[in-house]
Design brief:
Layout lengths: L2 H7 L2 H26 L5 H13 L4 H19 L2 H20 L9 H20 L8 H12 L3 H16 L5 H24 L3 E7 L3 H11 L5 E6 L6 E9 L1 H14 L4 E7 L14
Antiparallel strand pairs: 1-3, 1-4, 2-3
């Protein structure tokens, strides 16, 4: 990542923009789909919604604000002040947008509503988590677990809600709880996909007798670095050089053309990789 791009990604403007748009998308989903259908959307907002449906006290937006206070203390202790302030912005904006939004998205089918809710929540939450903050609530716990134990954020979200919905069966209609679980599952999948979307790369291995010549042409033509790895064929015990290169989807076909133009007998192996940090790629995000 270039210094200019790195500086922009860490800028206040970029992070506030991600948080604002992501929070707005989530607030629209919650106010115009989740509340009219009485879904329990999961996370701390799900706890707030469930509490509201049972007690009719305040509203889910304001309860969400109150329930976040102890979790923000954890974020302050275990993560950073910068993370805390960005997360506080997200929490405040979700609460504010929830109060201001007054329209409803008309979806009669409970299943379609659950799917739409899940996609919107997951995409909005993913945008916020692309910043240096979080959506507050359960995201604070999820970030701590991700940093310390590499537990996927979506998995933490789904696990918490599985427990929440297990308890919800006692007081809510079974069909409603099942639809809410579907929404949460879609949310977790969309969230993980959104987080991986801009980091996804292809890892290519090229086994050829002309690996060095191919590497030179790749560096000259595609302007990307390569790595040459010493190897040995297991059958003939002959020394070989394996070329390894990390590349994006757009350049993959050009790489394939370069390889087989140079050596039509080359072995071309491509794997998906969803996290490439360091060097000229994404910089490690420090909260």
């Amino acid at each position: 990542m270039s210094p200019q791009k790195s500086k922009f990604v860490y800028s206040v403007f970029w992070n506030c923009a991600l948080i604002t748009v992501g929070s707005l998308i989530q607030a629209i989903a919650l106010k115009s789909i989740a509340t009219p259908h009485q879904f329990v959307p999961g996370g701390i907002f799900g706890v707030s919604s469930l509490f509201y449906y049972i007690t009719d006290f305040l509203n889910p937006g304001l309860l969400y604000l109150l329930f976040n206070i102890p979790l923000f203390i954890l974020g302050y202790i275990f993560i950073s002040r910068r993370f805390l302030w960005y997360s506080a912005l997200a929490m405040g904006l979700i609460t504010l947008f929830y109060q201001l939004i007054s329209f409803e998205i008309n979806i009669d089918s409970q299943l379609y509503a659950a799917l739409t809710l899940g996609v919107m929540l997951g995409f909005g939450a993913g945008m916020v988590l692309r910043s240096l903050g979080s959506n507050g609530g359960l995201d604070v716990i999820a970030i701590i677990l991700y940093q310390k134990f590499n537990i996927g954020i979506g998995k933490t979200y789904f696990g918490f809600n599985l427990l929440l919905f297990s308890l919800s069966f006692a007081g809510l209609d079974n069909d409603l709880v099942i639809a809410s679980i579907i929404a949460v599952f879609v949310t977790s999948q969309t969230l993980d996909y959104t987080l991986a979307l801009f980091n996804q790369r292809k890892l290519a291995f090229i086994i050829s007798e002309k690996s060095e010549a191919i590497a030179d042409r790749v560096m000259t033509t595609l302007k990307i670095g390569t790595t040459l790895l010493p190897a040995m064929g297991a059958y003939r015990k002959e020394s070989r050089t394996v070329m390894m290169v990390v590349i994006n989807n757009i350049q993959l076909k050009r790489l394939e053309e370069i390889v087989f133009t140079a050596d039509e007998h080359a072995l071309f192996i491509v794997e998906n990789t969803f996290s490439v940090l360091g060097s000229t790629f994404s910089k490690r995000k420090i909260y």
